[in-house]
């Protein structure tokens, strides 16, 4: 980081108990950052080369207490990496209002709480970096991830507006839109189940579990991308990360709806008959 920062820079990484967050926090620690990770249950986290603090991003009080603990120990927070998240799988019709609200509460409002907590001091010092971990789903929403995609869409909008607002104050905001990564994320199931959606929904869930548990890209790719965003003198607003992100974004921009369905959605193989995806 090349802002008005002291050495070593202090980084707070949410959701750092495993997967993407742990890989990111570990890499930052290896590159000289003073890292604080978080978990809702820090007592159950395996040994890490950084302290892991208790944090529930759904709670105003928990966010305030966590940020106060970091500032009390390190004096400031130079970089916030909003990684904590969850994913709900289910058709939009199967998703209850309460389930959609819970998805937004963690993935969108949780990140917003964290940004609210660190921004006043960052603006006062005229320096700071915020990296929000988004998803390709936040730009190209797939079937059966409607609530998750909506939460990432919202995070994208908040982040882009915020980036414009705080740039004059020396604070930089970046989004990392990832796809096909071994995130290790746990998928919650919508409580309601409709038989008409069962086959394609379950096939989508199996596909997601395979990618995020064994078949996807290594979490170290995200960690290196976060490090790049933190160390760049001119960090980008958006970083696409994953083997097909660039191609899918271009297809969504260039193709008609019918062409996109035929070229991208139908090949997912979720429906027994091609008509189900077109």
Protein architecture, described:
By secondary structure, the protein is of the alpha/beta class. It has two domains: 10-243, NAD(P)-binding Rossmann-like Domain (Rossmann fold); 246-278, no CATH class. The chain contains eight helices and nine strands. The strands form two sheets. The protein has a seven-stranded parallel β-sheet with strand order 3-2-1-4-6-7-9, with helices on both faces. α1 crosses α6 (220-231) and α3 runs parallel beside α4 (146-166). The longest helix is centred in the middle third of the chain and has 29 residues, at 97-125. It is globular. The mean pLDDT is 92.
What's this model, at a glance?
The protein has about 280 residues and is α/β, with parallel strands linked by helices.
Secondary structure elements and pairings:
Elements: E1 10-13, H1 19-30, E2 34-39, E3 52-54, H2 60-74, E4 79-82, E5 87-89, H3 97-125, E6 128-135, H4 146-166, E7 171-178, E8 187-189, H5 195-215, H6 220-231, E9 238-241, H7 245-254, H8 257-265
Count of the domains: 2
Q: Beta-strand percentage?
A: 15-25%
Shape: globular
Q: What sequence of helices (H) and strands (E) makes up the elements?
A: EHEEHEEHEHEEHHEHH
Tags for this entry?
278 residues; alpha/beta; Rossmann fold; 2 domains; two-stranded parallel ribbon; 8 helices; 15% strand
